[in-house]
Amino acid sequence: MLNVRKIWENSNIPALWPDLAASVRFDEPMALHTSFQVGGPADLYVEPSGEEELGALGEALFSLGIPVSLVGGGTNLLVSDKGIRGAVISLARLSSIRKGEETGGSRIVTAGAGVSMETLVEWCADRDISGLERFAGLPGTLGGAAFMNARCYDLSLSEVFLSARVLYFGPSGYTIMTVPKREGEWDYKKSPFQGVKARHPVALERGDSLIASVTLSLSAGSSPDIRREMEKYRADRESKGHFRYPSAGSMFKNDRSFGKPSGAIIDGAGLKGFSVGGARVADWHGNLVINTGGATASDIRTLVEEVRRRVLGQTGFNLEPEVIFAGEW
Ligand SMILES: Cc1cc2nc3c(=O)[nH]c(=O)nc-3n(C[C@H](O)[C@H](O)[C@H](O)COP(=O)(O)OP(=O)(O)OC[C@H]3O[C@@H](n4cnc5c(N)ncnc54)[C@H](O)[C@@H]3O)c2cc1C
After folding, report:
1. Which end of the chain has fewer beta carbons closer than 10 Å to its terminal beta carbon, N or C?
2. Cα of 157 from ligand 1 centre, angstroms
3. How many Å from the N-terminal Cα to the C-terminal Cα in the chain?
4. Would you please indicate which residues are annotated as catalytic (active-site) residues?
5. How far does the centroid of ligand 1 lie from the alpha carbon of residue 291, in Å?
């Protein structure tokens, strides 16, 4: 087995990048970094503070032969109980926000991929910038929302996305480029950034890119109106019990061809309240799988597979998980 700690400590990275090295934690429980609050240890967990550090880190890890994974807020992930081998990079420190040009009613905002959506939404509201109200209460980071093309109250992130700065790890080093929005590359819960990661959803390999920052096209508004809207969406989430227990939000994608939402299908199959260990289909929402306390990742995964099997058997619908299974299963 790869001794990641030894490889890291014997490399020249800690001496070259002391600030980066200071952010490293070994055997870091991923349960601390996922909204499900489950998941075993990452061999090495690291938080670079800027693009240059991030690029150098990626290159160093590739050349040391340490597998690399990337997490945002961990709010759409189910990390296995065995954890994640190699290094997990968190972009939490890439969190600056700045205003760009203002023309007429349009407002341009650029933010680091690691900023939480809540912080970004609040920042915009403070500055009379409208357009992100529906994302109020969305857990996770801007990078994760762009990668997943998060969708809240009929608004997809793609609808306010202008461009992203990405680090592309090519065969002989990394380059930073700006990727503009191209029509046809985005769809329901699909972004152009997912294609390259189809093999292993959180792994970063040569030939992959990661989002370092995102530029959004927003509009002028008035803070009290923006806040009123935000509170409406937050209250709706509260009333739907989103935050009552640890979860990763909707477990399954909604497939329009099924003619009804996945939650209604699961409810129709009599599976609300269905439990495996500490994992349970919420009594109040068929598409919400919750950790009632003490659930393991394997409880949750077993429950998900059983729900899929029973729904398929009863209705013929093959539910597709939206939550990403990460780590060693
Ligand atoms: C209570 C609750 C409610 C939710 N409601 C909604 C909702 O209404 N709508 C919705 O769409 N989702 C919802 N979600 C799911 C989740 O919050 C979103 O999918 C969110 O956008 C994921 O962001 P994250 O930063 O947590 O990503 P993570 O879960 O950490 O990662 C998801 C994927 O994105 C990749 N990724 C993360 N950052 C980057 C980056 N910078 N560059 C490249 N790849 C990256 C990761 O490698 C991984 O493959 C909800 C979740 C919870 C817990």
Report:
1. N
2. 11
3. 16
4. 250, 322
5. 18
Distance 314 CA to ligand 1 centre (A): 30
| Rg of the chain in Å (alpha carbons) | 20
Q: Which two tokens stand for residue 285?
A: 């929402």
| Residue 135, pLDDT above cutoff 80 | yes
pLDDT digit string, tens, across residues 102-113: 888 999 999 999
Task: Map residue 220 onto helix, strand or coil.
Answer: strand
Average pLDDT over residues 244-273: 96
Q: Which of 109, 112, 114, 103 is nearest to 127 (CA)?
A: 109
Q: Are 130 and 230 in contact (CB under 8 A)?
A: no
What is the CATH architecture of 241-319? Alpha-Beta Complex (3.90)
Q: Is 324 in the pocket of ligand 1 (CB under 6 A)?
A: yes
Task: Please report the pLDDT score of residue 198 as a whole number.
Answer: 52
Asked whether 77 lines ligand 1 (CB < 6 A), one says yes
DSSP 135: G
Say if domain 4-90 classifies as CATH 3.30.420.40.
no
Mean pLDDT of the chain: 95
- Look at ligand 1, atom 23, and give the residue with the nearest C-alpha: 144
Q: pLDDT digit string (tens) for 5-40?
A: 999 999 999 999 999 999 999 999 999 999 999 999
Q: Is 321 touching ligand 1 by the criterion CB < 6 Å?
A: no
Does residue 167 have its Cβ closer than 6 Å to ligand 1? no
* Strand 106-112 to 209-220 pairing: antiparallel
- Taken as a whole, the chain contains a residue count of 329
Nearest CA to ligand 1 atom 5: 249
pTM of the model: 0.96
Pick the CATH number of 97-237 from 3.40.630.30, 3.30.2000.10, 3.30.465.10, 2.60.40.10: 3.30.465.10
Ligand 1 pocket, residue 72 CB under 6 Å: yes
Domain ranges of the chain: 4-90, 97-237, 241-319
